[in-house]
Structure formats: C-alpha cells, structure tokens
Amino acid sequence: MHEYHHGFSVSVERVADEKVLLTMHARGKLRHEDYQIMVPMLETAIAGMESPKIDVMMDAREMDGWEMHAAWDDLKLGLKHGRQFNKVAMVGSKSWQETAAKIGSWFIGGEARFFEDKTPALAWLMETS
After folding, report:
1. Residue 20 falls inside a structural domain
2. What is the mean pLDDT of each run of 10 residues along the chain (129 residues)?
3. Which of 40, 5, 6 minimizes the C-alpha distance to 22?
4. What is the value of pTM for the model shown?
5. N or C: which end of the chain has fewer CB within 10 A?
6. In angstroms, rounded to a whole number, what is the distance separating the alpha carbons of residues 111 and 127?
7. DSSP sequence for 84-119
8. In CATH, what number is assigned to the domain containing residue 28?
C-alpha cells in the first residue's frame, strides 16, 4: 500500500530594494491551499516596489504535479505577476518538469530553466541580471 504525502514549504525574502527571492519545496501535488498561503506572502513582499523582480527557486524533486484548482491558481499568478518574474529555477528529475519549465517561460517576463541539481540552479539565480 502506497501512502500519499503532501508537503509545501515557502519562503519569501527581499534580497534588494526591488528584488525578491521566492523559495519553494513541493512534495506530492500542489494544492489550491498552497497558493492561498504563497500568493499573499509574495504580494506582501513586493507591495510598494515600483518595478519588482522576482527570482524563484522551485525544488520539485518530490513534486507530482498540480491539482486542477492549483493549476488554475498558477495560471492566475502568471497572468497577474508574470512580467515581474525575472528568473525561475526549477530543480527536478522528471521529464515533464523540464517541459513545465519551458512552457512556464512563455508566461513570464524573464527566463525559466530546469536543473537536475540545486547547486547550479542557485548559481544561475545569483548571477547578475
């Protein structure tokens, strides 16, 4: 018998006057409730910024996808704040995750890349842009 485990951790950190680092780790399927936690945190962090740039470190190695409502939440987030996303680094091990990163780059102002290891993903995020 396989037991399903869901987990979601998120942190938002201002790293410069107009720059925010959003770090997420997902386990199982992302849920609507995860977005209800993450989106207000992100919006509070960028409130008052004239031209925010958002960098994202998404650890998706234990992620199995999105529930339907969460996929809709993800699309709404992209439509509302997509131009503010600067770099999105998705760390994973599944081919669908690499495809998701490529498709995700269509909906943001910056660039999304897929990595199989966290170290080069962090190095890429820290590069000046």
Report:
1. yes
2. 76 91 93 95 94 95 91 90 94 87 83 94 87
3. 40
4. 0.88
5. N
6. 13
7. GEEEEEEE-SSHHHHHHHHHHGGGSSSEEEEESSHH
8. 3.40.50.10600
